[in-house]
Design goal:
With about 325 residues, the chain is α+β, with helices and mostly antiparallel strands. About 35% of the residues lie in helices and about 30% in strands. The chain contains ten helices and 18 strands. Strands 1, 2, 3, 4, 5, 6, 7, 8, 9, 10, 11, 12 and 13 form a 13-stranded mixed beta sheet that branches. Strands 15-18-17 form a three-stranded mixed beta sheet, with helices on one face. A hairpin with a 4-residue loop joins strand 10 and strand 11. Helix 3 packs across helix 6 and helix 4 packs antiparallel against helix 5. It is globular.
Length: about 325
């Protein structure tokens, strides 16, 4: 299991983990407080600076070896014989991170410059369960609206050269302008880079598409797997079609893509799957369909701060179904 979790951590850090692997990682993090220390230790080595992952591995390994040499000279020879690659490096770093004495040394003197000591930043993760939304202020003053069922990770203090956050799910960003420090949102295989702008990122792992919708400024959207990029101007969105691995740009409806942050639920020509999926996320419920819809949905409507019961009455009248709400379960049955 340890081998497996190290591989999953490596994938999560590089943005290639599947939704199932993310769930395994979350369960593992919740098992012990030491697991969170270990994970943060590994992640912190990669979120700071602009160096490559391999360079970061080598640098971290070198500093760890020096720390061990000071405290456990009898063991440094064995560690120096190992090469800092792949899961092996992760195992070495993780085991050292769990030793309290070396953890203190790490936080006190791990990253240094010639002139002064650099304080290592803590990784902060904000999560919203289904049915809950929240607003987050980042260290640089950037405002983030985090949608239901989403998570945002970032360092407690950005570096002098970059601002990097990691998103799972959906969020709207109003980025504080800082030409010297580009703002990067990593969401799976998509990286969005901006200086000062406003945009929405929708990157739920279960969705067949990921979308970056720009309302102000200009952003660069990169698709890492194919080394492709598009540059957006306001009113346009970058859309990644996961099944076909195609990234393209198109105009978008700002109300449909961004009204959620103001508590407004908007549907335009939406089908059954889209509507029920959004309602599950919005209200934190699960739908149980007793039978199939007699006709294809084509729903266009909007709801502002309405109860689930009211929403279902409106939609049910048009889609011809009755429903029953039992706590977090909603049973739907279409009329024949």
């Amino acid at each position: 299991m340890k081998e497996d979790i190290n591989d999953i951590i490596a994938k999560e850090l590089s943005g290639t983990a599947t939704s199932e692997e993310i769930e395994i990682l979350r369960n593992w993090l919740g098992q012990k407080s030491e697991h969170k220390i270990e994970y943060n230790f590994l992640r912190l080595t990669w979120v700071q600076g602009n160096e490559s992952i391999q360079d970061s591995k080598s640098r971290v390994f070198t500093h760890l070896a020096e720390s061990i040499n000071e405290h456990k000279k009898s063991k440094v020879r064995h560690l120096n014989e190992l090469k800092p690659t792949g899961a092996l490096w992760l195992k070495i770093a993780a085991s050292i991170a769990l030793v309290s004495a070396l953890s203190l040394l790490f936080y006190g003197s791990f990253f240094k410059t010639e002139s002064k000591e650099v304080v290592l930043n803590e990784i902060i993760t904000k999560e919203t369960p289904k049915g809950v939304k929240r607003q987050v202020a980042l260290p640089d003053g950037t405002e983030v609206w985090l949608n239901s069922g989403s998570s945002l990770s970032y360092a407690s203090g950005f570096t002098d050269s970059s601002r990097i956050v990691k998103l799972i799910g959906e969020a709207f960003f109003e980025v504080t302008k800082d030409p010297k420090r580009p703002f990067r949102v990593e969401s799976g295989d998509i990286v969005t880079t901006a200086i000062g702008t406003a945009f929405n990122v929708n990157a739920f792992s279960k969705s067949s598409i990921s979308t970056v919708s720009l309302t102000e400024g200009k952003v660069k959207v990169e698709y890492l797997s194919k080394n492709e990029a598009v540059y957006l101007t306001p009113g346009y969105a970058a859309v990644l079609h996961k099944k076909s691995n195609q990234l393209d740009a198109r105009s978008f409806d700002a109300e449909v893509d961004t009204a959620w942050k103001d508590g407004i639920l908007v549907f335009k020509n939406a089908g059954e799957e889209k509507v029920l999926s959004d309602l599950e996320n919005w209200y934190g419920v699960k739908f149980d369909l007793k039978n199939a819809s007699p006709e294809q949905w084509d729903l266009t409507t909007r709801f502002e701060n309405e109860t689930l019961e009211h929403v279902l009455k409106v939609i049910g009248f048009k889609a011809k179904f009755k429903f029953e709400i039992d706590n977090k379960k909603v049973t739907v049955e279409y009329f024949n």
